[in-house]
User: Fold these one by one.
Assistant:
Number 1:
Amino acid sequence: MSRPSFTDSFPLFRPIHARIDFDALRHNYLRTRELAGGARMWAVIKANAYGHGIMRIARGLSTLADGFALLDLEDAVRLREAGISQPILLLEGFFSARDLPEIAARKLSTVVHTAEQLDWLESAQLPAGARIPLFLKVNTGMNRLGISPAQVPAALARLRAWPHAGPIGLMTHFADADGERGVDAQLARFAPLAAQFDGPVSMANSAALLRFPQTHADWVRPGILLYGASPATAYMTAADIGLKPVMRFEARVIAVQQLQPGDRVGYGGLFAAERSMRIGTVACGYADGYPRHAPSGTPVAVDGVRSRLVGRVSMDMIAVDLTDIPQAGLGSVVELWGEHVSLDEVAQRAGTVNYELVCALALRVPAVEVGVADLSVTEPQPAVALAR
Ligand SMILES: *Cc1c(COP(=O)(O)O)cnc(C)c1O
């Protein structure tokens, strides 16, 4: 496959970027759709599309996605203004009755998860003929959002009687689809409600979609799978699932140091050289979104060769071991995660999850797009596209 060379240039003065691969994104969407059987898919693009850039990811999926799910009304409006015409679901619903006219005008779908939201719906002043598609969310054990199963019949009756109700769906969210407890207990509470319900039903996040086909129902809600990372690293790697990483986080070596045995590296001198070493200082630190808790030994790839982080992560820099990579030096490209180093490995070393790493990508890191986006979405792109 011919791709533009990504090592030729970094878009800003400081040599760091997040390379976003549209081909990988579309591959992951199609792979996820295969796993989802016949269910329709809300592509979850909350949190700036998990750090990948919400407008960018919407552009990448604009002809594929059955719908988009996110949190912010402002983002939903931007999607509509860019020409995205499929359903858009507000996953936390609305935060006051004042939000409803915009939601109706933009033809957005919204979750209703609490009794107060029912009151706000009933008190809203909307144009005659306005219809809002609704998903009633049931708390089946996550205890975050949702009304209790016992309240569902009364809530559905109120929604059905609301003159501005569009199609009404029923949904829930799993707390441990990626873990040992799985979905059984929550499914036992939800299934009787779903069985009596005649509208669309939605349950599965990425982990449930992958591990529990009995949760697929009408709409699935994959997030992390689309970005090419595993939702359940204890059970499967991204490669096992057949996903491709969408983000490649890279920066250049901007200085090289020679170390004698016993020389220390970085703040606190946490790392001491066991032998003569050559290390590279890389233009990436925790202010770029690299995890400060990543310890010495965390994998990196230097010009495509795997090596390791040494010493403490600084705000703007890290050090990497070049000793066994004699061809590497000033200007070498260091992959922090992406192709040769998986996001999941770095997350595990840093004591966090893949989700947190990509979401924390800093505003100051520019994005570089590769592969084919969909041109039917016409939002003008700035010359240098920042990740957010
Ligand atoms: C974030 C979110 C998802 C997507 O979760 P993934 O684990 O990334 O697939 C699905 N549903 C809801 C309600 C969410 O908040």
Number 2:
Amino acid sequence: MIAQNIFKIQSEIGPAVQLVVVSKYRNIEDIKQAYAAGQRHFAENRVQALLERKAALPNDIHRHLIGHLQSNKVKHIAAFIHCIQSVDSKELLSEIDKQASKHKRVIDCLLQLFIAQEETKFGMDAEECKAILKAKIAGAWPHVNVIGLMGMASLTDNVEQVRAEFSSLKSLYDELKDLHGLRVLSMGMSSDYAIAVAAGSNLIRVGSKVFE
Ligand SMILES: *Cc1c(COP(=O)(O)O)cnc(C)c1O
């Protein structure tokens, strides 16, 4: 039962951690059940899915993007997106800034870091993250609000490795948060959110465990 799954996860993580339900690949009826249970933060990994779900679901939903975003697609979501969690380059940030300004908005974004040992295509390293925050604090991208960091751990049964990957992102977050006003550390999905929360995550992105 979707509602029970949500309540169970919420009771595990406590009130200080935000649950964002990942609704990718789910049908509208399932998402409506989560909505009826009071869930208001949902994430998709594709722009097309975001647009379809926006048309089919209530307007008080906060919509997050968690997948790689191509610059030429930013314009389709700039009017309504609540948070873009998957910012992986300066160029993308510039395009988000440009499109947000057209709608007189300031869009909340997270910088996606690679922390996993496996090769991943998208994300940035700590140096690039720091360079972006430095430029931001100097006045770049006024229509973007960088509110935190996001990362995905390796897909492995090795709990120690996952814990170490999350801890490394937490350390970077702690190093940067006061100076740059960061308040969101997005780490943890169905298989590893307990480890992520123990390591200091305050936002988890959970799909399968909600809809199973
Ligand atoms: C799909 C996805 C999730 C959710 O994965 P589950 O294992 O279904 O909980 C979380 N974060 C990102 C970036 C994803 O692509």
